[in-house]
Design a protein that fits this description.
alpha+beta; 4-stranded antiparallel beta sheet; 1 helix; about 20% helix
Length: about 150
């Protein structure tokens, strides 16, 4: 490559510097994407407690959508009966979504506690008397968290 004058670039050099600039911009954008994603939590943990050896019905999902009216539409959901105390950690997918509903599986009102941590930070901690079939409900979506209760 030849320079026509000191400090001036030929057409080939200008095109090469333009290509290098586009590549650098593209790499910077990818780097920014990784940086903005670095705050996305990777795990959710929940703990259920109450009178020892009592049961709760547990519904969990990471595959759901929230309608404009706040209603939840589940593509899939897991359902199980657990005995308290019960503790579980789950990996959050992409996008980071998490739903849990824990209801009283006994025949009498009992005191239960539900705690939820997202990415190691406490997001929910409530203790209340649940009638049979009554539940705690927690919904999390990365960058759009929300708690909705069915009462």
């Amino acid at each position: 490559m030849s320079r026509t004058m000191r400090g001036e670039w030929s057409g080939v050099e200008r095109r090469m510097s333009g290509v290098a600039g586009v590549l650098a911009l593209g790499m910077a954008m990818l780097g920014c994407s990784d940086l903005t994603n670095s705050g996305r939590p990777g795990k959710a943990r929940f703990h259920l407690d109450g009178t020892a050896s009592t049961s709760m019905t547990l519904l969990t999902s990471q595959d759901f959508f929230v309608g404009a009216d706040g209603s939840l539409d589940f593509a899939s959901m897991d359902s199980t009966s657990v005995t308290v105390p019960f503790d579980r950690t789950v990996s959050l997918g992409q996008p980071a979504r998490f739903y849990i509903s824990a209801s009283n599986g006994e025949d009498a009102p009992l005191v239960f506690t539900m705690k939820v941590w997202i990415g190691g930070e406490s997001w929910y901690n409530e203790t209340k008397i649940l009638d049979p079939g009554e539940d705690f409900e927690f919904v999390y979506r990365y960058n759009e968290p929300g708690i909705y209760g069915l009462e």
